[in-house]
Amino acid sequence: MTNPILPTDFQPTPSSEPTTDKSTNVSNPPSIATDATSNAAIIAQMRTLIDALKTHNNAYYVLDNPILEDSEYDQLRLSLIELEEEYPDLVQSDSPINQVGDMPLSAFTQVTHDTPMLSLGNVFEYDDLRDFMRRVNDRLSVAQQSPEYEMELKLDGLAVSLKYEYGKFVQAVTRGDGQTGEDITQNAKTIRNLPLWLADAADIALLEVRGEVVMPKAGFERLNRLALENDDKVFANPRNAAAGSLRQLDPSIAASRPLAFYAYSVNQGLPETIETQSAALAWLGDIGFSVSAVRVIQNPREAQEYYESVIDKRAQLPFEIDGTVIKVNSLALQQQLSFLSREPRWATAYKFPAETVMTRLQAIDWQVGRTGQITPVGKLEPVKVGGVTVSNVTLHNFGEIQRLDVRAGDMVSVHRAGDVIPKVTRVWHGQRPADSVPVMLPSTCPVCDSPVVLPDDEALARCTGGLFCPAQQQEALIHFVSRRAMDIDGLGERWLIGFFNHGLVKTVADIYQLHNHQEELITLEKLGEKSVQNIISAIEASKQTTLARFIYALGIRGVGETTAQNLAQQFGDLDTLMSASIEKLLLTPDVGAITAELVYKFFRAPHNIEVITALREAGVHWDKVEQKVSTGQPLDGQTWVITGALHSMARDEAKAKLQALGAKVSGSISAKTTALLAGEKAGSKMAKAEKLGVKVVGEEEFLALVGEE
Ligand code: I6G
Questions:
Q1: What is the mean pLDDT of the chain?
Q2: Rounded to 5 degrees, what are φ and ψ at 600?
Q3: Is 154 an active-site residue?
Q4: Phi, psi for 150 (deg, rounded to 5)
Q5: 424 found inside a domain
Q6: Catalytic: which of 22, 54, 154, 691?
Q7: Which of 78, 242, 447, 507 could form a disulfide with 471 if both were Cys (CB 3.0 to 4.6 A apart)?
């Protein structure tokens, strides 16, 4: 079978075990108020739903500018279907339920389908799938019970009908309203994998093949990237992009779009020897069509397994799908089962749970992360998305709130695909409550009330509370005791968090008061006496440290181990460091403007000073730092990296010359690198230096610097 786009490993293996028994039903629409007894009230409800559906259809199919999420649209449709089923006598003549999808555009020739192009019913849950299969059984004789089924992918594209006369492609028509579609023959001819000549069907007077036109994901992304570059309209999803492309009156535009056609049925002209849907698809593949991954199954459990295997492989597929399709395999049984008014009784779509749904953003809370970052969290009216109920959504940072222009009270689209964290993808500004107010960044930390800052060059606002802020204390504690900091071996993270949760330890200074709480450690934490002794001894031993370790242990943002060592070297003692001006701090190797400001502010926060004082009073101390006298070398404190081929000397020689001038020579580039000496054929290091804004020095400039010009 030809299948040029699908991954070859896409064949799930059968199993005899039931895989899931889901009891929740995401397909249920919100219940409709049916307490209105008069016909007028029912008709009014129907009219409201019809108007909403029509508005959506026009926005979606004609204007390519949807105003509702698919799931919302599905819910409206289901509500109307329920009403119409309950009150068949009141069905409105213009109800869109008996139409399917698209609305023809007047510029294309209208073509009436030889037989209607209907749509499929939907199920979303295993139980509903079983019901569908049970209903099929109910309509079959005893001998025909438990028929074989065929399953396929449900591609998320546009249904079209193709006609071939004696093997020659003659016409392509969109589904339109199911009865009449648009003649898109010229555009369809440009679809790369659509065969224009079928040698193996040259003796068939009329062959009608139906299937789906899709835009593969990669092509869609390319198209949108290009549109962005050219300031053109970007498409919301590949289906809209496919629809927009097929509706181009100028076929050369359609030709430039990456479209693909996948066949799913033969409506006329199938050779009589073919008796099943799976055989029909195999035949279509053989004569030159792309077809989706097919599986023949015998029972609901196998159907479920196929469905789940498709979910697993979904992300790797080259095109978007929104579920699977299950069909009675025997074409004779299909005929026998025939159609309900709008859909075949022998097939249904087993769809994936909606991945994007609309809900109301009830509030925006601010949370303080472990390192003081203040992040906005959206509180949602709980909603089921991608199969799970979601009530919180991250809004990342204040900039994101401004970009989305979102406010508490707004209707938002929430997207959750696979295990991805749910996020707000759209704000429906048209539905904004009149009394909503713009979101402001809090000026003080919601946990400790310390001032909040939003540095110019950073996306995240931060609490300045540092060690005083309870939200940051836990992380600060873990960092403080870690091996490279105060190295309190024996006070593991688990105990430490336990002590924190029991209120025995709040700030890092409280660690040095734990010896006063030994009884509580034994009763609250159920620690043995020996363990408590070990912890107390480890704490005691840690009091003797180095200034560099102590500075690092304080957890000042931007101050890693090396910077801590440099600060210790530069200032020699803690008091001098604590009172240093920004200008003085800037003289420290490795310390740039941002770190200097962070260090400066850290030592100006009263809570931090309190904690440091308590630590010193508890006996934390260090030996005097032996400050290395500066050599006064021109490249003192600088870090260089060498890359590429040098003409005038070997790299080792260049390295020795740089070191002789006081520079450190490192093998890798980082933001802390002072300069990159770049010889010929400098590769990725050059690119990285440019990206990080590291100065690049050519060989000539280097020779001048080392005095060998
Ligand atoms: O809309 C559809 C998508 C996929 C279909 C369909 C399909 O088979 C894979 N099959 C039929 C029979 C119909 N609609 C009506």
A1: 86
A2: -55, -50
A3: yes
A4: -120, 140
A5: yes
A6: 154
A7: 447
